[in-house]
Each structure stands twice: as C-alpha cells, then as structure tokens.
Fold this protein.
Amino acid sequence: DAGVIQSPRHEVTEMGQEVTLRCKPISGHNSLFWYRQTMMRGLELLIYFNNNVPIDDSGMPEDRFSAKMPNASFSTLKIQPSEPRDSAVYFCASRDRGPDGELFFGEGSRLTVL
Amino acid sequence: GENVEQHPSTLSVQEGDSAVIKCTYSDSASNYFPWYKQELGKRPQLIIDIRSNVGEKKDQRIAVTLNKTAKHFSLHITETQPEDSAVYFCAASSTGNQFYFGTGTSLTVIP
C-alpha cells in the first residue's frame, strides 16, 4: 500500500481564497483524522471520522473550516475564506481496524496564506 | 476528555548517553500509548507502543514503561546517536477513539 496520500503537498494562497486539502487513507482503514501542526500549538486534532461518519469535530476552529468523507477512500478539508493564521501543516492520518490500531500519517500539506 | 502532558519540551544529550521523556495522562479508560518520532519536515512515525496490559516493552535501544496506577508512561532511548535527533510525541487512546497527543519533546543528540 502507498500509505496515506495527501494533496497538495504545498499550497500558497492569498487571504480570502478557498483552500481544499485532500486525503486518501490506507485501504481498509476505517478511521480518518485531520490534524493541524504549528510551532505554537503542536499537533491539534481538527476532526475525525469512523466509517465515514464524523465523530468529533470539536477541534475545528470555526465555521470557516469544514471536512467531508464521502466514501471510505477519500476525505477533504476545506477552508473558506482562508486567513494568514491558518498557515500550518495539515496532516491526515488513518487507523486500521481493531481495538488499538496504529495511526499512520500522510506526508502533510503545508499551507501558507499570505 | 483525555489530557496528555509531556516533559521536557526540549532535551539535549551527548551522543552515547540516555534520554528519557515522560508523559502523564488523565483518563483511566486510555489503554493504548504510542510514541511517534517526527524528523524535521517529515511526518510523525510510530517508533514503539505499549498497551495497558503490559508494563514495559523494549525494541533494541528504545524502551517504554507504563505505570497505570500513576497514569504515566515514559520513553527511554539508550546509547543515543545523532540520528535520534527529532521531535518525539507521546499519545494516549482508548479503544476506537481518538488519539490525544502530548506537546512534543525536541531531542538533540550532540556528537
């Protein structure tokens, strides 16, 4: 398996623009997580899905952020409108079935909002 | 919810010495405790994990200990090497639920 695949790897955009980050989890994994990493706040959980259903979105900063998982092999994280403070590395991770499955991270999407 | 605290935030050791990173957790339902290593510009990757029915686990130069009563767990790296330099994260999780990460420890191994 190619692992968790994220795109784009790098995104530079201007304030106010819409940003869409994409993730393909490892096949067969039933949980998907979106994290945001900054120097100041470390790894923050934004939202996670079990079997394509959002379970906990309490980490989503505000209404400008939304996430979807239309099927087991694809998820998106959208920011609209983007702001400079959204600049961070966004990681998608998936977890395999079983009670204590390992969490596998994608390579991350580095977002810069000017 | 769960609260995971990690210390120290930075750690410098001489090559060949040992490094210890400690974490505490608050939720007694947590039963899985992984440790992740993140090199600069890379993704976090699992290096070792321990489950609540085990007190200690070792993998070559890396070991993890768990004290369920005190709700703390530690990462031990022996005979450190420059390539061990990275940020290390501890985490706690309960069955089927999310992972709660510590704030990370930046380890520098001085040659």
